[in-house]
């Protein structure tokens, strides 16, 4: 059940990350939301591993957004937009 909550939470975080980093992404909104889920899981996990916050604190949302923005930025670097002809 905890994983399901992180997935829903990741969808919201993915949307927030998309608002922070506007522009076209290779892959569209669905892939951006999947990257948000990955970033939320990664950011949330790293924050708890390093003891930056405990479960249920607002810092978890901030770390999830930071993780999602980083994952989205890395994805944009690795998969640049292809020019349309």
Provide structural commentary.
With 85 residues, the protein is mainly alpha-helical. It has one domain. The chain is built from three helices and no strands. The protein has helices at 2-20, 28-49, 59-78.
Separation, N- and C-terminal Cα atoms: 45 Å
Number of discrete helical segments: 3
Strand-pairing-aware structural class? mainly alpha
Shape: elongated
Rg calculated over all Cα atoms: 13 Å
Instruction: State the domain count.
Output: 1
Give the SSE order as H and E letters: HHH
Contiguous uncertain segments of 5+ residues: none
Helix amount:
over 70%
The average pLDDT value, as a whole number, equals: 77
Query: What is the tally of beta strands?
Result: 0
**Approximately what portion of the residues adopt beta-strand conformation?**
under 5%
Write a concise synopsis of the structure shown.
The chain has helices at 2-20, 28-49, 59-78.
List the helices and strands and how they pair.
Elements: H1 2-20, H2 28-49, H3 59-78
Helix pairs in contact: 1-2, 1-3, 2-3
List descriptors.
85 residues; single chain; elongated; 72% helix; mainly alpha
């Amino acid at each position: 059940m905890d994983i399901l909550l992180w997935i829903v939470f990741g969808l919201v975080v993915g949307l927030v990350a998309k608002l922070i980093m506007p522009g076209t992404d290779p892959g569209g909104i669905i892939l951006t939301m999947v990257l948000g889920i990955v970033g939320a899981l990664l950011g949330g996990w790293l924050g708890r591993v390093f003891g930056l916050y405990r479960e249920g604190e607002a810092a978890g949302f901030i770390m999830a957004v930071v993780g999602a923005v980083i994952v989205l930025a890395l994805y944009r670097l690795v998969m640049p937009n292809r020019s349309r002809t």
